[in-house]
Design a protein that fits this description.
Elements: H1 2-41, H2 46-60, H3 63-75, H4 81-94, H5 96-102, H6 110-130, H7 138-165, H8 167-172, H9 174-185, H10 187-201, H11 204-216, H12 222-235, H13 237-244, H14 249-269, H15 273-283, H16 288-307
Helix pairs in contact: 1-2, 1-3, 1-7, 2-3, 2-4, 3-4, 3-13, 3-14, 4-14, 4-16, 5-11, 5-16, 6-7, 7-11, 9-10, 10-11, 10-12, 11-12, 11-16, 12-14, 12-15, 12-16, 13-14, 14-16, 15-16
Protein name: Na/Pi cotransporter family protein
InterPro entries: Na/Pi_transpt
Organism: Cohnella yongneupensis
């Protein structure tokens, strides 16, 4: 039991988290300063903020990084509450890119992607050693960060593949089977579990990828996986709440708004888990893993579109530092 379930689950999840962190760091180092200027200059309206939040989260593969960045901008008075509201809604959509890519079964090429990225990184390292007397060129640095990002993506795919490999062992486990039946009968446990685990590891994509890996082998039902998606959307707010502590009222307002919106979305769609599954199944029939990814995308897009008009309320157009709501 230890070697068949515990070791693969820990190793697979560790590779998932490590891969995502490597991707996040590499892309932040490459685009961090330019991204800050882009966000500050390109959010003239809540709708533009929504587009920027979506693109930035997809680029950095981390809605948490964009959320923390937004809280900092609001505390500095660079963004109004309405613009920050649009960005937060966009991050929920942009974060779906990772799981949608995983639904394409790219894990079959995980090792090849990692190996190619490693070779590319070694080439940039050798080029830098040759030019040790001078700083590496802009293009060499870009290539290095791109290779690191692809290496992280390869690690992520390898972790996903390992998680899938433990499916038969989980299915043979009577205890796990009983837990899954309980979660299927009471989806609220899936929501609570997804929220708690996401808050613990600071990555909703990693938790959803875990559920996708289990669903791909039949160890987890798609409905239970969708319940985990709803919970993960709430748990991802934890990092923003922590980041807002000690900051201005505007930053705390942004963090609490994200929590309120994501919690309201989970409550709204909890009775509609069956409908989300049906819609996702229509897109990818016979593929439980992809169904969870599509359900996440549908859920986040619908929630964000429903909430976006709230950003146009007149009382939110003032700078956050002087807003009475901040």
């Amino acid at each position: 039991m230890l070697t068949d379930i515990v070791v693969p689950s820990l190793l697979g999840f560790a590779l998932l988290l490590s891969g995502m962190k490597v991707m996040e760091i590499a892309l932040q180092r490459w685009a961090g300063q330019r991204l800050s200027l882009w966000v500050a200059r390109s959010t003239a309206t809540p709708l533009r903020g929504f587009a920027v939040g979506t693109a930035a989260s997809a680029l950095l593969q981390s809605s948490t990084a964009v959320t923390v960045l937004t809280i900092g901008f609001v505390n500095a008075g660079w963004l109004t509450l309405s613009r920050s509201f649009g960005i937060i809604l966009g991050t929920n959509v942009g974060t779906c890119l990772t799981t949608e890519l995983m639904s394409l079964k790219l894990h079959r090429f995980g090792f090849s992607i990692f190996a190619a990225a490693l070779v590319g990184w070694m080439i940039t390292a050798l080029l830098y050693e040759v030019r040790i007397a001078s700083a590496p060129s802009k293009h060499a640095l870009t290539l290095r960060y791109v290779c690191l990002a692809f290496g992280g993506f390869g690690l992520l795919l390898l972790g996903f593949k390992i998680l899938q490999s433990m499916g038969p062992s989980l299915q043979a486990s009577g205890t796990f089977d009983a837990l899954m039946r309980h979660a299927a009968d009471n989806p609220v446990w899936g929501v609570l579990g997804g929220a708690a685990l996401t808050a613990l590891v600071h990555s909703s994509a990693a938790v959803i990828a875990l559920s996708m890996g289990l669903a791909a082998t039949g160890a987890l039902s798609p409905e239970a996986g969708i319940a985990i998606v709803l919970g993960a959307n709430v748990g991802t707010c934890f990092t923003g709440l922590v980041a807002s502590i000690g900051g201005g009222r505007g930053g705390r307002f942004v963090a609490l708004s994200q929590l309120a919106l994501n919690s309201a979305g989970a409550l709204l769609f909890y009775p509609l888990i069956g409908a989300l599954h049906a819609a996702a199944a229509a897109i990818s029939p016979g593929d439980p893993s992809a169904q969870i990814a599509h359900a996440q995308t549908l859920f986040n897009v619908l929630c964000s579109l429903i909430a976006l008009p709230l950003a146009y309320l007149p009382r939110w157009r003032k700078p956050a530092s002087i807003s009475p709501s901040a």
